Amino acid sequence: MPCTVVKHPMVEDVLAALRDKKTPSDVFRMLARRLSLLLIVEATRDLTLTKAAIETPLEKTTGHTIADRVVAVPVLRAGLGMLDAFLELLPRAQVGYFGLERNEETAVARRYYEKVPKDLEGAFVFLLDPMLATGGSAAMAVDGLRELGARRVRLLSIVAAPEGVAHLEAHSPHTEIYTAAVDRGLNDHKYILPGLGDFGDRLFGT
Ligand code: PRP
Ligand code: URA
Hints:
Blueprint: E1 3-5, H1 9-19, H2 25-43, E2 49-55, E3 60-66, E4 70-76, H3 80-89, E5 94-95, E6 97-102, E7 109-115, E8 124-128, E9 131-132, H4 136-147, E10 152-160, H5 162-171, E11 176-182, E12 185-186, E13 192-193, H6 199-204
Parallel strand pairs: 1-11, 4-5, 4-6, 4-8, 8-10, 9-10, 10-11
Antiparallel strand pairs: 2-3, 6-7, 12-13
Helix pairs in contact: 1-2, 2-3
The structure holds 1-O-pyrophosphono-5-O-phosphono-alpha-D-ribofuranose and uracil (URA).
């Protein structure tokens, strides 16, 4: 399973500000969106194009439009911080939702909500979840997408732990990961180190 770490000075710059505990929620939200834009551009580089006849104000020519059926699936809550960016770049994408929540003591995820298009067989599915920690949530979401027929699934995360990358690789080797960073590891509470804390709490000010 390829894990692509997106390298760009702007990615580094935004990530540093996201990690900073002094960054307030309103700024955090804006930065999460900005970093998502950079990740999404990289993660969609190989979308299929189709020719389209167009007419400029001066003459007829041929352009190219995206042919793939693209589906974005943010994992609630934190994945919502990446959705606006996705829809700005791919406004015709369909959107589905998985609600997953880690148990605070065991760090094991439970699925509490699902609203995803049912016929995902031909779709290019982008799972949006900014934190890949143990990998339990991502594996659960990928399982849900597979049950709905998805074959091409790409996970967009902002910060990943090596444990999560390894878990997802073992669990679903065909799921590709795009992330801004693979950090050092997890602490005893399964939080990413150095990480950026609880993404959902920082995004929503809770
Ligand atoms: C966070 C994060 C991921 C998950 C990652 O969500 O957004 O979904 O933890 O951890 P894992 O790889 O160990 O499963 P959380 O359960 O805290 O819910 P929230 O988004 O509602 O805050
Ligand atoms: N979820 C988060 O929001 N942060 C972590 O470090 C791990 C899981």
